[in-house]
Amino acid sequence: MKSDSTRQTERRNKYYYFKNRLIKVLGNENSKYFIKLFLFVFLYKTGEYLFNFLETKELLSGMINNIYYSLSGLITNISVSLYTVFYAEIYSDSKFIIIINNIKTIQMMHGCTGFMQLFQIFFILLFFPLNVRKKIMFIPVSFIIIMIASVLHYIILVPIAYSYPDSFTIFHNIISRVVFYTFFFINFLLWNNAST
Predict the structure, then answer these.
(1) Cα–Cα distance between 89 and 99 in angstroms, integer?
(2) Are 75 and 122 within 8 A, CB to CB?
(3) Distance between CA atoms of 162 and 171, rounded to whole angstroms?
């Protein structure tokens, strides 16, 4: 039969063994990378849920609608300007519908503006392990990256909506995810490299 002090010593040794193993594993560069990646994804989803919650609150809905309106105008105007080279008659109306050769082709909806993604980037940066100076530096850089993703996403969808309107929903769902996830991952790589 073991004495109490022997059992305590064994427990303490097990504790120190697991503690040392944990420190060794967490000190590994691969482990740090995957922990940061998990944190990034967790904050991304949390930011999405928080945004959806805040969007439903009356207090913020007016402000959010103004931002949606501004982003819709910006992205629609950039798309129309780019496609004047390819289409003889292209313009947009006050509801952000792009009309090509007198055919209503695509309308900018709130979800396509990238506003939720901008909110998510800001939310992730609040909690991502970077010093304050780097966070302040990365806010405009990350916002620009997400705005490029929003414009690129819409620019890709315009000819698809015009040429393949029956397949638009499938293309929209695939392209939206690929473009935004790619640009979010670019942000993650930038932040991860800056945090090491």
Answers:
(1) 8
(2) no
(3) 12
Phi-psi region of 110 (alpha: psi -120 to 50; beta: other; left: phi over 0): alpha
Q: Could you tell me the two tokens for 23?
A: 């420190």
- When pLDDT is averaged across residues 30-41 and rounded to a whole number, the result is 84
Average pLDDT over residues 146-162: 91
**CA dist 93 → 106, 143, 169 (Å):** 11, 27, 22
Structure tokens of 93? 């109306």
Contact 79, 151 (CB under 8 A): yes
**Nearest alpha carbon to residue 171 among 153, 185, 151:** 153
What's residue 25's pLDDT?
61
- Residue that the structure tokens 């193993």 belong to: 21
Those residues with Cβ within 8 angstroms of residue 48's Cβ, 6 or more apart along the chain or in another chain = 116, 120
Q: Is the pLDDT of residue 161 over 70?
A: yes
Residue ranges of the domains in the chain? 4-195
Question: Cα-Cα-Cα-Cα dihedral of 33, 34, 36, 39, to 10°?
Answer: 170
